[in-house]
Amino acid sequence: MIYPIILYGDPILKKPSEDIVPGSLDVKTLSDDMFQTMYQASGVGLAAPQIGKNLRMFVIDSTPMDEDEGNEGFKRVFINPTIVGFEEEEQAFEEGCLSIPGVRADVVRPTKIKIKYFDENWQEHIDLLEGLPARIVQHEYDHIEGILFTDHVKGLKKRLIKSKLNNISKGQFEANYKVKIPAKILKK
Ligand code: NI
Q: Out of 130, 140, 145, 174, which one is annotated catalytic?
C-alpha cells in the first residue's frame, strides 16, 4: 500500500513519536508499505510520521545514491531506535526531504554514529554507521523526534528558504508523488 506523504506545515511532523510495543502492530507489513511509499517518491529514507503515524520507525535504502558513488546499497528497517554515540567530527552535506518538496540545503552532522534498534523481525542490533548511511539515519531519526532538516538551517540560508517553506504549507509546491494535502487548504 502506498501512503500519501505528509507535507511541511502539518503538525504531525513536529510531534515526537512513540515507541512501538512489540505485537501491537504488524511491523513487517508497515515496513513493506513504507518501502513502497518511499520508492514511488524516489526517496532514500522515510520515517513513520511522514505517513501520518507518530511511531519510532523508519526505513532506508540508499541504493540509488550509492550507485552513483559505486558503493553497495544500505537497506534496513529501524524500529524503536536510539542513537547511543556520535563521532566528534562533523561534515556538511546537502539534504532534501520528501515532506519538503523543492527545498535543499546543507546540514552539518556527525560523520559517524552508533545506533541501537530493532529490525522488522524484532531482532536487536547495535551498528556503527558512517558515510551515507550515517547521514540518512540521522535525518530520519530527526523525523521521529519531530525535527526537520530545515530546523538545522540558520541565518541567511534560512531566510532564503523561508518563502518556499511558507508556500508548501499553503499548498503551493510541485511533487511527482502522492502527497497529503493539508486539511486547512482543502477547506478553503
Ligand atoms: Ni525527511
A: 140
Query: Within a domain: residue 141?
Result: yes
140 is catalytic: yes
Distance from residue 58's CA to the centre of ligand 1 (Å): 10
CA of 36 to the centre of ligand 1 (A): 16
Per-residue pLDDT at 118: 98
In the chain, the number of structural domains is 1
In a domain, 120, yes or no: yes
Closest C-alpha among 109, 70, 72 to residue 92: 109
pLDDT in tens, 3-18: 999 999 999 999 999 9
What is the per-residue pLDDT across 81-117, written as a single tens digit (0 to 9) for each? Answer: 999 999 899 999 999 999 999 999 999 999 999 999 9
Answer whether residue 188 is part of any domain. no
Query: How far does residue 70's CA lie from ligand 1's centre (Å)?
Result: 24
Spacing, Cα 3 to ligand 1 middle (Å): 15
Whether residue 153 is contained in a domain is answered as yes
CA 39 to CA 42: how far, in whole Å?
5
Please list, in sequence order, all residues whose beta carbon lies within 8 angstroms of the beta carbon of residue 41, skipping any fewer than 6 positions away: 5, 98, 175, 177, 178
Q: What is the CATH number of the domain that holds 131?
A: 3.90.45.10
Tell me the residue range of the domain where 35 lies: 5-183
